[in-house]
Amino acid sequence: MCHSCSMPITDKKEITNKPRWLKVPLPKGGNFSKLQSELKSRGLATVCQEAKCPNIGECWSAQTATVMILGDTCTRACKFCHVKTGNPAGFIDQNEIKHTVEMVSMMALRYIVITSVDRDDLDDGGAEHFANIIKAVHENHPTTKVEVLIPDFDSKPNSMKKIGEANPFVIAQNIETVKRLTHPVRDRRAGYEQTLNALKFYKENYPHIATKSSIMVGLGETLEEIKQTCLDLRNVGVNIVTFGQYLQPSLRHLKVDRYYKPDEFEDLKKMAYELGFDFVASGAMVRSSYKAADYFDWLEARGN
After folding, report:
1. How many independent structural domains does the chain possess?
2. Which of 145, 143, 146, 155 is CA-nearest to residue 118?
3. pTM for this prediction
4. Over the stretch 226-263, which tens digit does the pLDDT of each residue have?
5. Owning domain of residue 57
């Protein structure tokens, strides 16, 4: 699974060593608690809740949320990710379609991000199920914008076409890190060029759909490597990029090389805009789904 809005729960020793700007309290309040209870009573859950994301209150108040489909077990094992690894043996919960539509209704969402684990056990990687959920949201909530944060579908064109033809508002696939660090950061079945080629495919075949990618920092990359990664993304037409701090989910995962300061995230943002990205989100707590609707708001403000 690509890093979405999730803030991994880290070992207590790691938490105490974090700089002050990474210590954000979880939201509270009557309306927030009421909505959580209502979702739970209907058996619904967002990635925002499951990951205990500190951005949850801000995103929910903006009528934005992220949902993970295709179960909770990933067939890959990236060294930064806390999602469990295993073999789902081809199982797909068809109720996810109905539940996603219900969630949009309950939360009055104007923007939903749909993401998933990797499903290499499925012939199409789960692309048809993804497409069916996109279409169901469109049919039942035509004004709600749908962003998808997708796996690579093993670079199968027929699977990738299913996503493009479902016509989401944004297609995101995360490059995660710079080329030099792709392995060991990402699973051996994921690749730097593979991600770039996928983003290029979507932009060439569905030019009206915005494309997006995200970069984690704090893994040992250099500024020049980040800039080169951004250039590579721009060269395949990516419109949106986000930068966020890598946080170590457990002692079994890759260690944090360093914590970027707030002004460094501002510098990354400035650099990305100078390279020609339409929209950039950059900050320690930023994940690829954070403030996802802001791009839509930006387009509306421009009259697009």
Report:
1. 1
2. 155
3. 0.90
4. 999 999 999 999 999 999 999 888 888 889 999 999 99
5. 12-302
